[in-house]
């Protein structure tokens, strides 16, 4: 009996504690803290459901022999076997090499070209706003549609690309195929990627150039520093953090590059343009080796994150110099 | 000394002209492939594959007619007993010994792009605005960690999460549905929306809201009546960036949809004519698909930099 009373007391006490909020204050709306959580929670929940949960699922699948096309098959936990298979597969190393080469060439060309263009546009010539917008257009387009259309431009018999090359060099247009040739196909994707994404680097470099205060150059003039010296001692160091940020964003995107290359060469001829993500798609959605491809996906993911983290450390070092 | 006139701060006239010439040449090289897409859309199939490539040609709407219709080839006898063509497109198709069998799937796919693009844009901007406001104005525990978590979800390769999303969607019946794709693109875009909008809202002086609070507005009223109108430009810019992403996305659309909810990017490259790809029709589809983005890009010029860097570089 005593227990019941105390229980009732507790409920009464709790009710009393719950109501003291003055009606007036409640009408004034939620507390700031309440609003903060109300506003943030939906986003966090959505990301947990559609990003984090699938990622954890991928990690789990990577330790099993699950196959998505045979859901009835009993799923077995097989430890690190998938990882071992991925890492001992020469095809995987081949695709990673292709990806690394693609990254090196596109990043090198686009960095130089993007910086040079930004430097030129910063001269503020007449109509620079209009021409800048023209240069920026390709990166806003759909890579898949663009990739598909470039296959048309690359046709050896009828395409514009071969015609233009032969017009300027005299090489007969039907003597080379950009996307059918083992040696030229990687360059075909480098060309399209450069066409699409140089503006990205250019735009960020331009922001870097515009952030350099004029007085630095004026001071250098007073000190009689040559333009060359000004370029290497002021322009380059001031733009470098911006440039490195641009390269980071582009490298992450190019590492997961899929759409453009699928439509352009779909990894061929043979597998000379088979980037890691294309190989991954084949393993996951054509061969349906779900466990294996999950392990591969995790390895790629860890690689990107590891590399990005090291790079960000370097970036911060440059910034704080 | 003349070197002052040649400094970076005040480049001389000749430096400007030289710089301008190089940039204009690069811009022209850039624009040629896009103009070629546009032109090919108005060629006839024989003109599109003639060699040398035709710069001058008689414009034709055949590509667009072929894009929106499916056609069947008929015998001359059959063609003769048909009633005379009712419309110019009927006439155009019949001049190639074909009759229109029905509409193509392009309209449907384009509509899917519109529904999924605008649906996910609305949802990501809505969620993003709320979260960005909270991150900008309130003391949220672990704020920096949460912000970084939100950004890091964007760095995941789509294929890494595509397999479980595929399985998950299959289990709950969301695969190949508009809702499923809207939720997915929202999840991808919301990170961009939060980061961009936080930057825009940070720039609105807090004094405006404080004045509103003193006038007796609640926090929510102050948010709706003071902050939102001030952030309108930023919200519009963010919306267009989200739309551009959802509009152009290909990997998820290819892997997770097969028909009902398929968007245009995986569809356009598959438009087949007689004997291979129908290039004028593909080009017509690409043109219709690219035009909205080109228009938005021109409108967006000022905000471009912030949008493509998640606001990491301020301009």
Your description of this structure?
The complex is a heterodimer of chains A (321) and B (315). With 321 residues, chain A is mainly alpha-helical. Helix content of chain A is 72%, strand content 0%. Chain A has helices at 2-18, 23-27, 32-61, 81-87, 90-121, 128-136, 143-153, 160-169, 185-210, 214-222, 227-255, 259-264, 276-285, 290-319. Mean pLDDT of chain A is 87; it is low at 1-5 and 19-27. Chain B is built from 16 helices and 4 strands. A two-stranded antiparallel sheet of chain B has the order 1-2. In chain B, strands 3-4 form a two-stranded antiparallel sheet. In chain B, helix 1 packs antiparallel against helix 15 (279-300), helix 6 (106-137) crosses helix 12 and helix 9 (178-202) packs antiparallel against helix 12. The longest helix of chain B is centred in the middle third of the chain and has 32 residues, at 106-137. The radius of gyration of chain B is 26 Å and the shape is globular. Residues 1-6 of chain B have low confidence and may be disordered. Classes of the chains: A mainly alpha (321), B mainly alpha (315).
Rounded Rg of chain A: 28 Å
**What's the tally of helices of chain A?**
14
H/E element order of chain B:
HHHEHHEHHHHHHHHHEEHH
Main-sheet strand order of chain B equals 1-2
Helix/strand order of chain A, N-terminal first: HHHHHHHHHHHHHH
In the CATH hierarchy, the third-tier topology of chain A is known as MetI-like fold
User: How many angstroms separate the termini of chain B?
Assistant: 34 Å
How many β-strand stretches of chain A?
0
Approximately what portion of the residues of chain B adopt beta-strand conformation? under 5%
Number of helices of chain B: 16
The level-1 CATH class of chain A: Mainly Alpha
Question: What is the CATH superfamily label of chain A?
Answer: MetI-like
Main β sheet profile of chain A? none
Transmembrane segments (chain A): 35-60, 98-121, 133-153, 184-209, 230-252, 292-312
Membrane topology (chain A): Multi-pass membrane protein
Keywords (chain A): Membrane, Transmembrane, Transmembrane helix, Transport
Subcellular location (chain A): Cell membrane
